[in-house]
Amino acid sequence: MADDIPFNNSFDITHGVADQISPLVRRIVAPNASPFTFKGTCTYIVGRGEVAVIDPGPMNDDHLDAIRYELRDEKITHILVTHTHNDHSPGARVLAAETGAPTYAYGPHVTPPAESDQPNLDAANDREFDPAHHMEHGDIIETGDWSFECVHTPGHTANHMAFSFREENALFSGDHVMAWATSVIAPPDGNMTAYMASLSLLTERKDRLYWPGHGGPVSNPNPFVRAFITHRKMRERAIFERIEKGDRTVEAIVDKVYRGLSERLVFAARLSALAHIQDLAERGRIIAEQAEDQTIYLPIR
What we know:
The protein is α/β, with parallel strands linked by helices. The protein has 2 domains: 2-230, Metallo-beta-lactamase, Chain A; 247-299, Arc Repressor Mutant, subunit A (Orthogonal Bundle). The protein contains 6 helices and 14 strands. It has helices at residues 61-70, 90-99, 192-203, 221-244, 250-257, 266-282, and strands at 19-22, 25-29, 42-46, 50-54, 75-80, 103-105, 133-134, 140-142, 147-152, 161-165, 170-174, 209-212, 286-291, 294-299. The strands form 3 sheets. Strands 1-2-3-4-5-6-7 form a 7-stranded mixed sheet, with helices on one face. A 5-stranded mixed sheet has the order 8-9-10-11-12, with no helix packed on it. α3 (192-203) runs antiparallel to α4. The longest helix is centred in the C-terminal third of the chain and has 24 residues, at 221-244. The two termini are 27 Å apart.
């Protein structure tokens, strides 16, 4: 089903090396490759002399040293964070403490822990980060040389914020939209209803390209985002049909809908399936019931 999205897995990088990817933007990729992070988290540096750092990344000494080395003769004046996952926000606390630069984000991680009988990514959440500046949708961050518009895009996390770089008409999209894969929507912090609304919001914008949290740029954003929306609607339909046919648990549904999936991706598939299921329940198409020690799902007739 992912064939309906024109993914681009081309991403030739060297960890720890700053690449100049546009006139005002450099990128350093953290050495934290995984099935969830592709080749690593992208940290972006905007400007020259006095710079903004976007998503300083994980608590990784090699990566933080690479940022320090690249900016050894420059000054960090702003630190922007797209969301509070451990591969994006922890480095912000280190850089802020070292430089005195204020941090900007939507807010801290606030979602309560997941229910124990459901798949979840609680270990991925950074519950220590709290930005100096809590930004709202439409707020502007600016200096004399560059400026950002804050674009609240909840779904991957409740506090996910993208940043529109107005001087280059580019959106730092975090993990909301990436060129290499679909975003994992992991309840309870991830929410499919919010994610779909945030995708729709992006189709109303005229960004030239996206710089995502992992992988290379999305160079034709609007058709790409519309393909994401179509893909998610197709996935929702397939999940609902399995529930109608009698599959009652997340595991049973994933076994049928995601046939042939690599074992290393099954957990992520269960997370996204659960997000779709919760969205269907919120819209009154299915109900959840407790059966002994597990949650089961039934269609509403």
